[in-house]
């Protein structure tokens, strides 16, 4: 029976050691399970975030497509407006050039008429008599001066329009 007791004591001693080791392993396992559980929860959270980001990305891509479509439409409209403005500006430049030519021509005539007017004004001072054509010439000169003033006004308007179109 002694032999059995010795085995029994030895058995109890081995069981106590194994029980102690089992307890240590359970504690280690519990310590390892906490981070594992946290990692699993974090993974689930990240997966949910990824799904939400994918939805947001899809939505953003759709919105970008819509905005790009509107941008293309707006660009086409703007190009049409620019072409119309360029055409109008070219027409105004042409008109301004014509008006400059008219103005230049009228200025030469005006200079001549002013000289004639001065000559007419000087004649009475010199004691000369006026001819019957002088009132008609004076009326003609005044009419030409009106045309010159009108041409100058048209030139200013054209220059202002041209400047506003260039700005």
From TrEMBL:
The keyword Coiled coil applies. Gene3D superfamilies: 1.10.287.1490. It comes from the Eukaryota. Residues 50-161 form a coiled coil. InterPro entries: Golgin_subfamily_A_member_5. It is a single-pass membrane protein. It is found in: Golgi apparatus membrane. Keywords: Coiled coil, Golgi apparatus, Membrane, Transmembrane, Transmembrane helix. One of its GO terms (biological process) is retrograde transport, vesicle recycling within Golgi. GO terms for cellular component: Golgi cisterna; Golgi membrane. PANTHER family: GOLGIN SUBFAMILY A MEMBER 5, GOLGIN-84. This is Uncharacterized protein. It comes from Brassica carinata. The lineage of its organism: Eukaryota, Viridiplantae, Streptophyta, Embryophyta, Tracheophyta.
